[in-house]
Specification:
With about 260 residues, the chain is of the alpha+beta class. It is about 35% helix and about 25% strand. The chain is built from 7 helices and 10 strands. Helix 1 crosses helix 2 and helix 5 crosses helix 7. The structure holds zinc ion (ZN). The site of zinc ion has 6 residues, from loops.
Length: about 260
């Protein structure tokens, strides 16, 4: 796995971890992408790296040790635990309380279970060579309407739909969001490899269009996660002003985890 900050001067708000073996067999992976907060006060004394480290640590531990819980139940419990770790002065009802996107995968001899919430991605490579992306489409569905608005109104429109009915959902302080995640199970014998990507790494496909998800998986398998991130950095540097490939940040935190069975 590899995880690199968009800027060496700003702490990485992505989080990646793997447990091998989890509960004596199989394993688990967790990738989180912390949501960069606005410059104004969000009513919390904790920053995003604090949040993703807490949530990610709890989620990996629960995924490995509590195989009686589904991935959604593990996420709900991890959010609950992290919410309890905030202080009395933290306003957990603030719309921009520390929060993150989530990818979780857990496997044993019989199955691969997965969960995706918001705009990080999981790729599942089958033993037949097919690559299936697991994506939470909610934010993408809002883009056509958002794009038609002037930039200031666009931000307000999207922020109004953050963790709101009909909008898109991130892991923040409300455990019930876990049941909004995209989840599924695949027979373990049908899976050859998994890749979890924050959108900073997924932009190789989604923004720079250097290849589809199957091509991205091929790069990962041939060259490894560090090389994928380096390729993203090269594409970003070749379009510094975002003129050819418009994007929110010139460089974003980028994380890729590859699991080969
Ligand atoms: Zn706090």
């Amino acid at each position: 796995m590899a995880s690199e900050p968009g800027s060496p001067r700003v702490p990485n708000e992505d989080y990646a971890s793997v447990a091998l073996p989890a509960a004596g067999r199989g394993g688990a992976l967790v990738v989180l992408d912390g949501v960069t907060p606005p410059p104004e006060d969000v009513g919390c004394e904790h920053d995003v790296p604090w949040y993703v480290t807490r949530l990610g640590g709890a989620l990996l531990e629960l995924s490995g040790s509590r195989r009686d819980l589904t991935p959604s139940q593990c996420l709900a419990e991890a959010i609950e635990r992290t919410a309890r770790a905030h202080g009395p002065r933290c306003d957990l009802s603030h719309a921009r309380t520390p929060q993150a996107t989530v990818v979780l995968a857990r496997w044993d001899e019989s199955a691969v279970e997965y969960l995706v919430l918001s705009d990080s991605a999981l790729l599942v490579e089958g033993t037949d060579g097919s690559v299936t992306p697991v994506l939470d489409p909610r934010l993408d569905r809002l883009w056509p309407a958002a794009r038609a608005l002037p930039p200031v109104e666009r931000v307000a429109y999207l922020e109004g739909l953050r963790n709101a009915e009909g909008g898109f959902f991130t892991a923040a302080a409300d455990p019930s969001v876990a049941h909004r995640a995209v989840t599924g199970t695949v027979p373990r014998e049908e899976v050859r490899a998994l890749a979890a990507l924050s959108d900073g790494a997924g932009r190789w496909t989604e923004i720079f269009r250097l290849g589809d998800w199957a091509a991205l998986m091929a790069v990962l398998r041939a060259e490894g996660p560090r090389s994928l991130v380096a390729r993203v950095r090269a594409a970003e540097s070749a379009d510094r002003d975002g003129a050819t490939f418009p994007r929110g940040k010139v460089h974003d935190d980028a994380t890729a985890v590859l699991v080969e069975f």
